[in-house]
Every structure is written in structure tokens, then in C-alpha cells.
Amino acid sequence: MNNLEQTLSIIKPDAVERNLDQEIKNIFLNNGFKIIKEKKIKLEKNEAEKFYKVHETKPFYNDLCEYLSSGPILVMILEKENAVLSNRELMGATNPKDAKEGTIRKKYGISIDKNSVHGSDSKENGKIEIDFFFKN
Ligand code: UDP
Ligand code: MG
To answer: Minimum-distance ligand to the CA of 62?
Structure first.
């Protein structure tokens, strides 16, 4: 029953640029997540490339890394029971067009690339991504 987890969440440049970060943080808080740590940063392109390395063979990799490093992002460690899955459900599908009503991407996402939020896709990747941003 008790499965307290942490996951990494990023509010991406399209949402920070529209000043949606506080509104999106409130959605997490209202859905039972605790924000354990947060910081607003701007990545260099080579850092975005490292973060998204799993996608390096995909056709959208270069644009994705350009985009993630195009402006400030808000990076957060979220904690909740089953945080990884719970966050993925709250975010909605990768393409905002396919995201369910009530999800963050449905509400704020502009397109498949400018989809407002990132969330870890497994507990294991959550740990790796949290370390990427918060291990000194
Ligand atoms: N992405 C894209 N084009 C695609 C698929 C993905 O631009 O055809 C971007 C999108 O911003 C997505 C990110 O690449 O959030 C990482 O893709 P992934 O499949 O991991 O989706 P996510 O886990 O973010 O839902
Ligand atoms: Mg992913």
C-alpha cells in the first residue's frame, strides 16, 4: 500500500514563457504532490542533449534539445504515493491533441513538441533524472 516515490518534473520553456509555472505547480499541490525541491534554470544545449540522450537516434532529437535549452525551465522533485505513474496521468499524453480532458498537456500544451511539462517515465529513470539536476 505504502509506495512513496519521487519523480522529476520539468515545466518546459513554452509554459514558463507564458508565466504558467505557478498555476501548474498549484495543480501538482492540489493533486497531493509535495514539491521537495525546485529551481528555475536555463540549460545549455549540450546539457539538454545529455538529459534527452535516450532520444538521440530520433528524428526530433535536435529540435527537442534546441527547444529545451531555448529558455528558462522550472525543475522540481515531486513526491507522492506512486508519484511516477500519478504524474504521468496528470500530465496526459505526449501529444496534447491526444491528452485527456483535465490533464496538464490538454490544458496548456501547444503542440507535440511544446507540450509544457516533462515527467519521468519510470522509478529508475526518476532517480537518474533527479540526480541529473539536483546532485550538486
Ligand atoms: N517529442 C517531439 N516529437 C515527437 C515525440 C516527442 O517533439 O514526435 C518531444 C516531446 O516534447 C516529448 C519529448 O520529445 O515530451 C520526449 O518524448 P517522449 O516520447 O519521452 O514523451 P514524454 O515522455 O515527454 O511524454
Ligand atoms: Mg519521456
So the answer is: 1
